[in-house]
């Protein structure tokens, strides 16, 4: 799959996800609006029923409050006490007669505003029952608001005192209740309304969110899941594309690596069969040596491929013995030194270990060090300088292979241990290999419970650091 196809998929999927998110948002908003409408209907039903009960109570003639109509003030405590004593044990006719007498003394008396007759205890019970009946169990504030006084007379079951300028502060301190949309008129007489029953729910917003919370969480969960799968799929496609490219490079390299020794073996065989050569033992011996050497080279390459196949399947065991790392490092350095010196380079060893023994697989560790040195050699310019350091650290040993090679970018360092990955060498086209060496090293280090890291700067060389524990935590046979 080409880059263009990948970008088309990304754009299409991104558009689909954005569209889906918009649809989800609109659907959730619609659900919240629907929930709010249902809530509003229930509240209005509840306060309407409360209103009916309040007005039914006030029509009861036993609930009477007298007031001075001309001065619009409540009657004094002296009047109420006198009236209470006079009413004791009298008939309705005698009470009316007393009221007329009081009226001639204090002015025309009669019923006050109907709002004054509301029993605040009953009001509290009525509204609580009505809301509970509608299934609304939220915290709420309620009040009786007087249109004439422009103030609350009752707030949350308590009488609100409002005299003079304090009427303004009465409303200011209860702004939310005053501005509430949940209200119903009380004691209507034509166009005149004595007041309103108002209710306010401080936690209404949270209640509406909670009513669709499951839908919101489900939407977020599934949208997130789709997004995760999309990102993961694109990542897999990109990685597979990269692996495919590396495999193509691997096949090309393998073809080249095998083609050269096969051609050499074929040429040597034809030379041996030549009538001028077949009679010369010395020449035959030389050509047989070439055949053997090229055959060994091919076998080595095949062995690398087979080793990686086994490591990929995690179906290999470590034959652990006590391994002397000084011996392993020196032997690998001696082998590499012959190649490096042919290019007028140098290999230096630095042994800083008093106890270099580790419990590990000798063959795999030897291959590990050889691969690191071979990698340093291949990616170094003319006159390579390679330093191999072995030192003791806590609970293990550390092997460092440093070169003065071409170095790597940060991007290369992220992928250097991937199978088939090879660093681009610019004009150095003579660097051979399958891109399996460092991948093999990483697999062996992991199998022994160790760690490997790299430090590199482009044009200034690289350093590979390997830590191997003395006692591997992983079991081997």
Task: Describe this protein's structure.
With 477 residues, this protein is an alpha+beta fold. The chain has helices at residues 3-58, 77-87, 92-106, 120-133, 166-172, 175-178, 204-211, 213-273, 281-312, 325-341, 362-378, 410-415, 437-447, and strands at 66-68, 73-74, 109-111, 141-146, 151-155, 158-159, 182-189, 192-200, 320-324, 346-352, 357-361, 385-393, 396-403, 451-457, 461-469. The radius of gyration is 48 Å and the shape is elongated.
Secondary-structure-derived class: alpha+beta
**Sequence stretches where pLDDT stays below 50 over 5 or more residues:** 60-77, 90-112
Radius of gyration over C-alpha positions, nearest whole angstrom: 48 Å
Cα-to-Cα separation, first versus last residue = 43 Å
What is the strand tally? 15
- The proportion of strand residues reads 15-25%
Number of helices: 13
Choose one word for the global shape: elongated
**Share of helix among residues?**
40-55%
Major sheet: arrangement of strands: 6-5-4-8-7
* Series of H and E elements: HEEHHEHEEEHHEEHHHEHEEHEEHHEE
Helices and strands, with pairings:
Blueprint: H1 3-58, E1 66-68, E2 73-74, H2 77-87, H3 92-106, E3 109-111, H4 120-133, E4 141-146, E5 151-155, E6 158-159, H5 166-172, H6 175-178, E7 182-189, E8 192-200, H7 204-211, H8 213-273, H9 281-312, E9 320-324, H10 325-341, E10 346-352, E11 357-361, H11 362-378, E12 385-393, E13 396-403, H12 410-415, H13 437-447, E14 451-457, E15 461-469
Parallel strand pairs: 10-12
Antiparallel strand pairs: 1-2, 1-3, 4-5, 4-8, 5-6, 7-8, 9-11, 12-13, 13-15, 14-15
Helix pairs in contact: 1-4, 1-8, 2-3, 8-9, 9-13, 10-11, 11-13
